[in-house]
Amino acid sequence: MTHFDVKAMDKTADPCKNFYQYACGSWMKANPIPPDQAHWGRFDELAERNRETLHQILEEAAKPNPNRDADTQKIGDYYAACMDEKALDAKGLAPLQPELDRLKNLKDKGELAAEIAHLHRIGIGSLFDFGSGQDFKDSSLVVAQLDQSGLGLPDRDYYLKDDPKSVEIRQKYVTHLQRMFELAGDKPEEAKAHAATVMKIETDLAKGSLDRVSRRDPEKIYHPMKKAEMSTLAPNFQWAQYFTGTRAPGFDAIVVSWPDFFKTVNTMIQSTSLDDWKTYIKWHILHSEVPVLPTTFLKENFDFYGKTLSGIEEMRPRWKRCVDYTDQQLGEALGKKYVEKTFGAEGKERMLKMVHALENAMGQDIEKLPWMTPTTKKEAMVKLRAITNKIGYPEKWRDYSSVVIKRDDPMGNGFRSDEFEFQRQVDKIGKPVDRLEWGMTPPTVNAYYDPQMNNINFPAGILQPPFFDKTMDDAVNFGGIGMVIGHELTHGFDDEGRQFDPKGNLKDWWTDKDAKEFEQRAACVADEYSSFEVAKGAHINGKLTLGENTADNGGARIALMALLNTIGMTGKQIDGMTPEQRFFVSFGQIWCSNEREEALRLQVQTDPHSPPEFRVNGVVQNMPEFQKAFSCKVGQPMVKNSACRVW
Ligand SMILES: [Zn+2]
Q1: What distance in Å separates the CA atoms of residue 315 and residue 317, rounded to the nearest whole number?
Q2: Can you tell me the distance from the alpha carbon of 437 to that of 362, in angstroms, rounded to the nearest whole number?
Q3: Rounded distance between C-alpha atoms, residue 593 and residue 45, angstroms
Q4: How many Å lie between the centroid of ligand 1 and the Cα of residue 440?
Q5: How far separated are the first and last CA of the chain, in Å rounded?
Q6: Active site annotation includes 552
Q7: Which of 151, 350, 564, 583 meets the CB 3.0–4.6 Å disulfide criterion with 479?
Q8: How far is the CA of 612 from the centre of ligand 1 (A)?
């Protein structure tokens, strides 16, 4: 099933007891998780379909036809090089040897800065991140940014928590490190020592890192300073050499996310030997290049990151991985071909109509809000009217003409693509913001709100069934893509988004009273979701997921309002369901999914989104409109005693 389907429902279930089961029960039964996936839901289904389309494009582009245009040559040869597993196995570590030798030949710690700059340029992360972004307090400016980074596990908490699961994962991680060093030529005893060294360094970095929940607070991660001040903050690191090595244009101002992290780095530079730094960096080089190393490395990598962390049984076939890497590294060259093949002008027009319907509903919602004073309402309306939208694909495609892609050099292709992207990012420093740029590639099955641009973005990849289906009635489309639009709009007013003004500046436009009212209502949502247990002992983190849950709740409410504004209150029944019922079932069905326990545990630690079941049941419990549509009674599970409502 790729469309809205009543057969996907479990009509034996009571919608007022478990709406997710009611909307998705038969789908879940009929769609077990494929062995190469961490979870399997409607998003994954569509992403897999898009991947098939990209696969066809790339197979065609890979044919060595002398008449290929420049973009086709690049994506085709990139893909062909990535697919040639035999060649990768035959070459072994040879393509990486120049990088490993460079690292080995460092003479003193003073040379670390230039080496790390070089590695950052070619896409190999370690220690921290450097790049560019809009200034929080002046969104028209692009500034240089330094951020914490350098860990091999998915979050700092993996290093610091003491529950049995975390301890077990750490042990398996150290074993993985050891095996990777062995595969790279270490004797077992050496490899064991090297693994311990990496674990020690990463644990120290984790201790100096700011936690994920705090990082959602823009004020906490905004510390503007002069570039020269870095030498006071962390004098043991050769910043001048680092910045020269990055080949960033000259600049004076820099925003540091979390200065304490760099104090930690400073202490560590002093206390850690050069040999230990080399070991740590070597691990990050190996880890970063795994996709283009021999299959023995790939298998070892999958064993930890696929099996242990996500519960996946089998590695995905090579073509799927190579399609994804092409999307990651040459995304707009591939995306352009994808759009030519799939996206029509008609889709864009209908989508624009829905966006306007949702914007109007959001406006009505703000006007009617019982807890907000007129002063703040007025400001909120100004912000809402200032939101712009981008639909489908970029107006101006990225120019990859300077990236050299060779059919027999997969690792070099990766380095050169990453270097192009790094240079593109640092070249923006000090320049005006490019408002036409996209943060997702066209085939992506997702959408986003950007608080600093104050815009909503919908890639072509999501504008398809089951989200958007021109053969379906309005109720189904408003429950699908309408809900997604409402979700993105609400992000402009969630606990994070509300701190930015209509121009995208971090600037408080709320009266104290309204801010307090907001906090109170947001706390209700945070508590509600924190009560949901996803696997034994693993709960959703209500504070980490607050923005997304607020957006889900607000999005569903305004999508329903927009539907009723569009069709009136007396729409006809289809398949024996009222428009309101079809709206909710459609909303439920975009989240139909089966999940592995490991993947759920990983998700609640790292992902600001709640798992699918709770994105549905968490929302409908708060909606009197839902309870009315299905005649639910007080006391039933889908009727929350004191319902939470922010927007
Ligand atoms: Zn979101």
Answers
A1: 6
A2: 26
A3: 10
A4: 14
A5: 33
A6: yes
A7: 583
A8: 13
- What is the Å distance from ligand 1's center to 603 Cα? 15
Pairing assessment for the beta strands 253-256 and 142-148 based on DSSP bridges: parallel
CB atoms within 10 A of CB 165: 16
What distance in Å separates the CA atoms of residue 262 and residue 255, rounded to the nearest whole number?
Answer: 12
CA distance 79 to 643: 51
**8 Å CB contact between 591 and 615:** yes
Contact 15, 630 (CB under 8 A): yes
Show the DSSP H helices in 369-466 as ranges: 374-386, 410-427
How many other C-beta atoms can be found within 10 angstroms of the C-beta atom of residue 289?
Answer: 21
- The phi, psi pair for 210, rounded to 5°, reads -80, 140
How remote is the CA of residue 225 from the centroid of ligand 1, in Å? 31
Asked whether 133 and 333 are in contact (CB, 8 A), the reply is no
Question: Which residue stretches of 482-572 are H helix?
Answer: 483-491, 512-530, 546-567
Residue 482: Cβ within 10 Å count: 32
* Nearest CA-CA partner of 571 in 477, 481, 647, 487: 477
Q: Is 593 left (phi over 0), alpha (psi -120 to 50) or beta?
A: beta
Q: Is 488 a catalytic residue?
A: yes
The whole-angstrom separation of Cα 173 and Cα 86 is 28
Does position 377 have pLDDT exceeding 70, yes or no? yes
Tell me which of 289, 552, 598, 613 is the catalytic residue: 552
Residue with tokens 């059919």: 407
Query: Rounded distance, CA 456 to CA 102, Å?
Result: 44
SS3 for 389? Answer: strand
CA pair distance 239, 121, nearest whole angstrom: 15
> One of 115, 327, 488, 514 is an active-site residue; which one?
488
Of 285 and 1, the structure prediction assigns the larger pLDDT to: 285
Pairing of the two strands 593-595 and 39-41: antiparallel
Confidence of residue 1 (pLDDT cuts 50, 70, 90): low
- Biggest CA-to-CA distance, the chain: 78
Position 2 confidence tier, pLDDT thresholds 50, 70, 90: low
Instruction: Tell me the sheet residues that pair with 577.
Output: 574
Does residue 354 contact residue 420 with C-beta atoms inside 8 Å? no
Closest by CA to 220, choosing from 147, 157, 158, 125, is 147
Flag whether the pTM goes above 0.85: yes
Cα 588 to ligand 1 centroid, rounded to whole Å: 16
- Is residue 106 within 8 Å of residue 112, measured between CB atoms? yes
